[in-house]
Design a protein that fits this description.
heterodimer, A: 315 residues, mainly alpha, 13 helices, B: 279 residues, 0% strand, elongated
Amino acid sequence: MNDLAAYAIRRTFQSIFIVLAVTIMLFAIMHMMPGDPIQLIDNPRLDEATTAKLRARWGLDKPAVIQYIYWLGNVVQGDLGRSITNGQSVSVLLAARLPATLQLTLSALLLQYIIAVPLGLLAGYRQGSFFDKSAVVVTSILRAIPFFWLGIIMILIFAVTFRILPVSGYWGMKSLILPVLTLTLPTLADTLRLTRSEVLEVLREKHVTTAVAKGLRRRAVILRHVLLNAMVPVTVMFFLSVPWLIGGSVIVETIFAWPGTGRLLWKAISAQDYPVVQGIILMISLLTVISTTIGDILTGLIDPRIRAELGGRAA
Amino acid sequence: MIAIFRALLAACRSKTFSAGSIMMLSVIFTALFADWIAPFTYDEMNIMDALQPPSKVHLLGTDHLGRDCFSRLVYGTRIALKVCVIAVSIQTIVGVVLGLLAGFFGGWQDRIIIFFTDVIWALPPIVLAIAICTMLGPSLTNVIIAIAAVSWAQFTRIVRPKTQALKNMPYVEAARALGESKFSIIVRYIFPNIIPVTIVLSTLALPVAVINTTALGFLGLGAQPPQPDWGVILYESMTYIRKAPWISIFPGLAIIYMVVGFNLLGEGLRDVMDPRLKV
């Protein structure tokens, strides 16, 4: 257990460094942008002296490193600056939009696992059967479908042709269906394939042969030995797939006018509202790093070999 | 080189690889001979003919400016192919060189490279690409830079451990004992063993690059109208989805065709060259 704690702490420290690197990168990007916030004040009465005074007041005359430390201090306190377009606080904007994004991505993640895990288990268990072969073909096509096209086709089928679901917007559960399906279908393929290959691997292991040989019933072997063991990497994948899902949600939210952070990001990009873009990317990075850290620690919890490998390396 | 040629011959016997290469050849053919295949140019407007459904003159109909959808689709192949090939070449070179250096030298060089790899790996690729494109401004060149910048890490992550293993092989030690320079050891003794995995990884990186290019185009960060980028066409088509669904359907099918083709090609190559590689 001591070993595991050391691994978890090392991994967490590593993540903190990664987040710091991301903040430096984002700050550098914003810093390299032409023009500073003072130049954006469009006021004819603003003369050189006042501009200089304002610069000094906001610390814009200081070297970049000092500015970064100021900025980081504000970020840690939850102050991400203000939107250029409407002057609202970026943190407030984010807090208002985050629940919708989480609702969308978590529903998609849940649906993905409900569909993909049983199908993957079945495909792996009946390797070479018609069902297995068609699962492989269908997943390789699903994997190739871009989110944005699938979204358009979904709208075309369910909202334009059959008129059974709302095209876009946020009208309760009904409007959740199309975005969630769009986000689920392409990502489902990877989970299904992973489950399938894990099942195949576990089926080849000796303890399964032993269980069959000692006369356990088929269902017991499948549930107790195959499913449990195959679920380990699949569970870890749950956390590691969050980045892909969040990336996809940016596009899906844009298509379906879903009032989450992804749509906010797209609007901010079109309006060149850099503080908002910076804030959202920082938030997405943080969410991603947290979930992959959990995923990695879980892997270490389950597989001692990985713990040893990373534990032996200076972080 | 002979080994690689032999592997390619072996790959031709697999159905996956053959299907993939036929699909890819058709895409390359379309891109090369776009001028002959397309009946119109991609920006020829004819407002009188706007939003026409598919017909004999306009095989896939026309868009809101009366441009021929089929011709735009055909010219779009060029953009997709060009961007993904250049982007993947850049990310392959960067990723493989860094992986070789990190694996061969170890120590602080290794730690720095691995740290950068971890940072890139920790972020959702498309979100990072969006950040880079926002900073650099929308253009195809910047899309190439962004895609290469977010995708090299995978190469480093796979080449580095392979290099570490190869570094301790007896023949590499023999070369070192004979006084070969480090550069020559990397180039002559280690790199040739990395080539198969590099080929497989780059082929499998191509479809990802196609999807990312079109996604950036769709978000307005990539190619700009009137360029016939498939993502741009799809974005423009959303406004006319009720009146003219044909504009939306075909670019997506083209993307899927290209992505499936590249995936089959890559999976076929992997089965022959490096079956244990998990990507």
